[in-house]
Design a protein that fits this description.
- With 655 residues, the protein is an all-beta fold.
- The protein folds into 2 domains: 399 residues, Pectate Lyase C-like (3 Solenoid); 133 residues, Galactose-binding domain-like (Jelly Rolls, Sandwich), CATH 2.60.120.
- The protein contains 3 helices and 55 strands.
- It has a 14-stranded parallel beta sheet with strand order 1-3-6-9-12-15-21-25-28-31-34-37-42-45, with no helix packed on it. A 14-stranded parallel beta sheet has the order 4-7-10-13-16-22-26-29-32-35-38-43-46-47, with no helix packed on it.
- Strand 51 and strand 52 form a beta hairpin.
- The longest helix has 5 residues.
Length: 655
């Protein structure tokens, strides 16, 4: 079961000040009782002002502590560095609420951490508000021509009420990581941004970017927004081991979390609510979590909801693999009520995004276009997601340029030459008329469709997936029930990984959708050396019109068909369904059940007589002498009609 993320404003305890590994000096700042004439090295002789604290150059093991429950106005500049074994620390002392650093809209950033490494900033409250439109930032981790900056952690910060233009402006954020310069390759290694609350920001929530980002067709870094000329943008040198986890970002006018220019980053366990909302501009849009210029990013276990939408062409999705990304993995996320949709991928001309994997996610009541796949992106694989489209209509109110009402338009929208799209093993509950694009060689295979239109699909199942309680707000209510037809009917794609809930995924017969029912239904025919193995799940898929067939020659009897249920099942009868029955149906068999250590024959030598040889599906039922509780069923096939050299089974049902 997934762990719920709580807003950090509900957590009142300050973190303990960590012990430092080697001797350093602890400096204290007290806004009420301190004096800048003091030494600052004890709580009784604390400094008073941010100006004095900002003059300090931190060294290994040094700590700069602000008294809890107090407030300072202006800017705090943090400079200096620790070492790997003895990091520097900025935080709080005493009891009470987090100390507040309030820029009050007079500085570009209320807290600026410049060219540091081996440093932790922990447990501050930061604001920067004057109700103006000049771009402002709460906390800015900044570097310029500084080389490798390792082991920086920003955690347990409450950053809120930061004013700005009220749209998307990448040079401003609640928490901004910005790297400048073009003479010394500069990047962060082991950068951790965790357990922060970022709220009420008139731009981005959390964003990282670097001028060391030029590759492919990416030649600039939003010069209108950043003021950085193209000449400063140089060879892609990504930050490494970046982790953004456990943060709660809400009520921001741009993106919630936006990592750029990283390699191997992990975006894990964050909660983003109402991104791209409350905008002061009438056009444009943004996405809850989006990334650009990254390789091998993993975006997982996040919950993104209620991202705003300004009409067609303005994003509004939960997740976005944007331009110049390679090998992104989007997994185990819960996306709901995002007005633009669940997932979008897009490229700039000459800066393609390649190889997205979107798997084991839940999308509930996302709007407009659940998937938007566009602009020369290639190699997007979408599998084992559960999509619930309940018919929510998105309303965009004036004065936004896209004002109007927007029912769900597409489950999958493909445009501007997106290629290499494979959509498999998904469960789609669609209570609308929204359809699917399929151009450019898009593959649909083994998806379950409930309601709405369905695309051409190699192994489609059109059926009620029998979810626990669809339409509710809890992710657990979209799990499969024991009799779901989605069980054991997926194609094998990524054996060895887990599902959304951490459950094991069968290596050979996975369930469809984001949930794998414990103990999947399996079918094996190992006693036939030459027996066909194509889609054996069709014998237990709940659909009497889908068939499995043996190979057309080399059949010997007896042989076995084993069905595993993964849990105890009470069986009183077994029904075999077959079409073209006098040509290919089983005519004699034994029925066995498993007692935990051995097979037990319940019915021996049962003869089956069939009537027709047409496409009409016939069925024959074998009644057991008594009801049996078992986890496995075996049919010992002793004879069959072999008019065409093979025999077939359309369905094996129990009651």
């Amino acid at each position: 079961m997934r762990k719920l993320l709580l807003p950090l404003c509900l957590l009142s305890l300050l973190p303990a000040v960590p012990a430092h590994a080697s001797a350093g000096t602890t400096y204290y700042v007290d806004a009420v009782s301190g004096s800048d004439a003091n030494s600052g090295t004890s709580s009784a002789s604390a400094w008073q002002s941010l100006a004095k604290a900002s003059q300090l150059t931190l060294g290994p093991g040094d700590r700069l502590l602000f008294r809890a429950g107090q407030r300072w106005s202006g800017r705090l500049t943090v400079q200096g560095a620790g070492t790997a074994g003895s990091p520097a620390f900025v935080g709080a002392y005493g009891t009470g609420a987090k100390p507040i650093i309030a820029g009050e809209g007079t500085v570009d950033a209320a807290v600026k951490v410049s060219n540091v490494h081996d440093l932790t900033v922990d447990g501050l409250e930061v604001t920067n508000w004057s109700n103006g439109t000049t771009p402002r930032t709460g906390v800015n981790l900044f570097a310029k021509d500084a080389g490798v900056l390792a082991n920086v952690t920003l955690r347990n910060l409450f950053i809120h009420d930061v004013d700005g233009p009220g749209g998307s402006y990448v040079s401003a954020a609640g928490l901004l990581v910005s790297i400048r310069g073009n003479s010394v390759p500069t990047y962060y290694d082991n950068l951790v941004i965790e357990n922060n609350e970022v709220a009420d920001i008139r731009s981005y929530g959390i964003i990282t970017w670097s001028t060391w980002s030029r590759r492919n067709g990416m030649t600039s870094l939003y010069p209108v927004e950043t003021g950085i000329p193209d000449s400063e943008v140089v060879t892609w040198t990504p930050s490494t081991r970046v982790v953004i986890r456990g943060n709660y970002v809400h009520d921001v006018t741009a993106g919630g979390i936006t990592p750029m220019h990283t390699k191997g980053a992990l975006i894990d366990g964050n909660r983003v609510d109402r991104a791209a909302s409350g905008r002061l501009v009438n056009n444009g849009g943004n996405v809850g979590i989006w990334w650009q210029g990254n390789d091998d990013i993993v975006v997982q276990h996040n919950e993104v909801s209620r991202t705003g939408f300004n009409g067609p062409g303005t994003d509004g999705h939960g997740f976005d693999s944007d331009a110049d990304n390679n090998r992104s993995v989007v997994q185990y996320n819960y996306s709901h009520e995002n007005d633009g949709g669940f997932f979008i991928t897009v490229s700039f001309t000459g800066a393609p995004t390649r190889t997205n994997t979107v798997r084991y996610n839940l999308s509930r009541d996302d709007g407009y276009e659940l998937f938007s796949l566009s602009t020369e992106t290639s190699g997007t694989e979408i599998y084992n997601n559960t999509l619930y489209a309940g018919g929510r209509v998105v309303v965009v109110k004036p004065p936004y340029n896209g004002a109007g009402s927007y029912p769900l338009g597409k489950i999958v929208h493909i445009y501007n030459n997106a290629t290499g799209i494979k959509i498999r093993n998904n469960v789609v509950v669609n209570k609308t008329t929204a359809g699917y694009d399929a151009q450019n060689g898009t593959l649909y295979d083994a998806n379950l469709y409930s309601g709405g239109p369905a695309p051409s699909d190699t192994n489609a199942l059109k059926s009620d997936p029998k979810l626990v309680n669809p339409g509710s707000t809890a992710a657990e209510d979209y799990q499969l029930q024991s009799d779901s037809p989605a069980r054991g009917r997926g194609v094998s794609l990524a054996p060895g990984i887990a599902d959304y809930f951490g459950g094991t995924v069968s290596a050979t017969q996975p369930d469809r959708g984001f949930h794998q029912y414990p103990g999947p239904v399996t079918v094996a025919t190992t006693s036939y050396a030459t027996l066909g193995v194509l889609h054996p799940f069709r014998m237990v898929d709940g659909d009497v019109n889908t068939s499995w067939s043996s190979v057309a020659s080399g059949i010997t009897f007896p042989g076995t068909i084993d069905v595993g249920y993964g849990q105890d099942r009470s069986i009183g009868s077994v029904t075999i369904h077959t079409a073209w029955a006098t040509g290919q149906a089983i005519t004699e068999l034994d029925v066995q059940t498993w007692n935990g250590s051995a097979w037990v024959t319940q019915v021996a030598g049962q003869k089956l007589t069939w009537s027709g040889n047409t496409a009409t599906v016939e069925n024959r039922t074998i009644t057991l002498p008594q009801r049996v509780t078992t986890r496995k069923l075996r049919l010992v096939v002793r004879n069959a009609n072999l008019k065409w050299g093979n025999f077939a089974v359309y369905e094996i049902a129990t009651a």
